[in-house]
């Protein structure tokens, strides 16, 4: 309740030399307390005059601080929400980038495969005509298979006792009969190539069989015919071949040099 006017009225008294606690004590103890109190109140008023604006400003700043803090909290909430959305979008982006990279890798792999396939197709393009011709040849072989098998079985069954000239004559006669009966067969039929492969013929040659056509045909008849063959072998070539051929099967030979009895010991016995 102290006002500025009251303090101004006190100023003349406060400035007097004898207006102090020590002098007042000499006069009256109660007066001394009142003197000290008035000095303190005047001093308090001076200090409080500076403090009150500060308190008001403090209250104002605290209000601003509270408002700013509320705004900060709201902003932090929004920031957290946006950060969450950003994290979700970032995860979607990372997933999309992985899918993109996977698609790029697949596309590159497909591109390589296409290039390889194109190169292969271009490289095999020249084989088209040969494959077409081979397909036609296979089709003709299927058509002529019955006649070819008939000629092969006839050769195995009936050509054994004859020399090369009569064997060729038999084949010509059989072909003539097949033409009359309209049985298809291959005009360029090679009975040797049909009944045995080159690897087997090479093995026979290493075992001592001569390499001429008649000897190879005899070897086919010996190995392919269902009946036991009778070998007329004045030069002993057939005997040498059989001995070498059946050596690993436990062949046993008895008798004189010119007569051969063959006993083959194997799992077929």
UniProtKB/TrEMBL annotation:
Residues 2-174 form the Dynein heavy chain coiled coil stalk domain. GO terms for cellular component: axonemal dynein complex. Signal peptide: none annotated. GO terms for molecular function: dynein intermediate chain binding; dynein light intermediate chain binding. Keywords: Coiled coil. InterPro entries: AAA_9, DHC, Dynein_HC_stalk, P-loop_NTPase. Residues 203-253 form the Dynein heavy chain ATP-binding dynein motor region domain. GO terms for biological process: microtubule-based movement. PANTHER family: CYTOPLASMIC DYNEIN 1 HEAVY CHAIN 1, MALE FERTILITY FACTOR KL5. This is DYH5 protein. It comes from Podilymbus podiceps (Pied-billed grebe).
């Amino acid at each position: 309740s102290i006002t500025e006017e009251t303090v101004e009225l006190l100023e003349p008294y406060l400035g007097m030399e004898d207006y102090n606690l020590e002098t007042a004590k000499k006069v009256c103890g109660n007066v001394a307390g009142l003197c000290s109190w008035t000095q303190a109140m005047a001093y308090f008023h001076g200090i409080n005059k500076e403090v009150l604006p500060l308190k008001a400003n403090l209250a104002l700043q605290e209000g601003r601080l509270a408002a700013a803090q509320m705004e900060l909290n709201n902003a932090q909430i929004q920031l957290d929400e946006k950060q969450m959305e950003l994290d979700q979008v970032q995860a979607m982006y990372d997933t999309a980038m992985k899918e993109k990279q996977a698609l790029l890798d697949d596309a590159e792999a497909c591109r390589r495969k296409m290039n390889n396939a194109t190169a292969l197709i271009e490289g095999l393009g020249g084989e088209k005509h040969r494959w077409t011709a081979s397909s036609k040849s296979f089709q003709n072989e299927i058509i002529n298979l019955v006649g070819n098998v008939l000629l092969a079985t006839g050769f195995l069954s009936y050509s054994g006792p004859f020399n090369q000239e009569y064997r060729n004559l038999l084949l010509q006669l059989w072909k003539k009969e097949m033409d009359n009966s309209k049985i298809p067969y291959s005009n360029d039929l090679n009975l040797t190539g049909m009944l045995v492969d080159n690897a087997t013929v090479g093995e026979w040659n290493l075992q001592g069989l001569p390499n001429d056509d008649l000897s190879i045909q005899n070897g086919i008849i010996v190995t392919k015919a269902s009946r036991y063959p009778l070998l007329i072998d004045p030069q002993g070539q057939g005997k040498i071949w059989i001995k070498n051929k059946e050596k690993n099967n436990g062949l046993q030979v008895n008798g004189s040099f010119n007569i051969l009895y063959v006993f083959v010991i194997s799992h077929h016995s």
